[in-house]
């Protein structure tokens, strides 16, 4: 087991366990772009009822970058009425280096940044993954079928650096961070490549969203989760977290991975959160889950994550010391 973080590291944590921003993804809800404000309110009220105070406006739910100004005002109003703060917007499958739609996705991402700023968000998350292929849409779990793969040529790399830096500059201009979501078979598909991309972009508003669950669930060999955390979290500014039950049969080479609550999955998030704070991670979290009652599982993940933060920030040890108990 990794050593506990030093007391110096703990005191530098930007928030305590009870007020660290932990957003709920809107993944469990259906596409609601043209829904009424009352429908939005009913959906967001469910999120708040599960104990969340922050939300990630995942664009599979509502594309805030495509809302008319009046509808954006409606959304801001219903967020307030539900008692939620929009922490982030995650723009999904809108790669700015998509061979066919890259320029269109770049323009969309700029609109998302402006909309997120108007809603009071702190971060916009974008990635380089593309829409699901028909074969992926036909299976129960889309990650069991390989999707599009990025061209890793020098030209493509330079295009990614230029367009993501452009988005980072825009985000900084309106007071936001830009976070790059890790995803398999893209230029953000491994810890080494993702860290290198952030370093080449070289903009203070741009960091990683180390959504390592996207890699851990693959039915193939994957890099060690804890080693990836140690490599990625020093340059990360937002973090989608989720877990899976992963199994590997060495006799046949078969791998399976199905969604699981964070406390029960195959990833040791207790160690991962400790490592993240040790290396200086100071961004918001977003809890996600696929399948079943995703919102209920995310609520469980939310409570679990706050317990881990209480340990990693040193709150548990300090409370024990005041009682004269050696932890």
3D structure, described in words:
- The protein is an alpha/beta fold and 327 residues long.
- The protein has one domain (7-318): TIM Barrel (Alpha-Beta Barrel).
- 41% of the residues lie in helices and 14% in strands.
- The strands form 2 sheets. It has an 8-stranded parallel beta sheet with strand order 6-5-4-3-2-1-10-7.
- α2 (37-49) runs parallel beside α3 (69-82) and α9 (225-232) runs parallel beside α10 (269-278).
- The radius of gyration is 19 Å and the shape is globular.
Low-confidence stretches: 1-11
Q: Hey, roughly how much beta strand do the residues contain? A: 5-15%
At CATH level 2, the architecture is Alpha-Beta Barrel
CATH C-level class: Alpha Beta
Number of helices: 12
Overall helicity: 40-55%
Give the CA-CA distance, first to last residue.
15 Å
Question: Which descriptors apply to this entry?
Answer:
globular; alpha/beta; TIM Barrel; two-stranded antiparallel ribbon; 41% helix; disordered N terminus; 8-stranded parallel sheet
Quick rundown:
By secondary structure, the chain is α/β, with parallel strands linked by helices.
Write the layout of secondary structure elements.
Blueprint: H1 7-11, E1 22-25, H2 37-49, E2 54-56, H3 69-82, E3 85-90, H4 102-118, E4 123-127, H5 134-137, H6 154-173, E5 177-181, H7 191-201, E6 206-209, H8 213-216, H9 225-232, E7 239-241, E8 243-248, E9 255-260, H10 269-278, E10 285-287, H11 294-312, H12 315-322
Parallel strand pairs: 1-2, 1-10, 2-3, 3-4, 4-5, 5-6, 7-10
Antiparallel strand pairs: 8-9
Helix pairs in contact: 2-3, 4-6, 6-7, 7-9, 9-10, 10-11
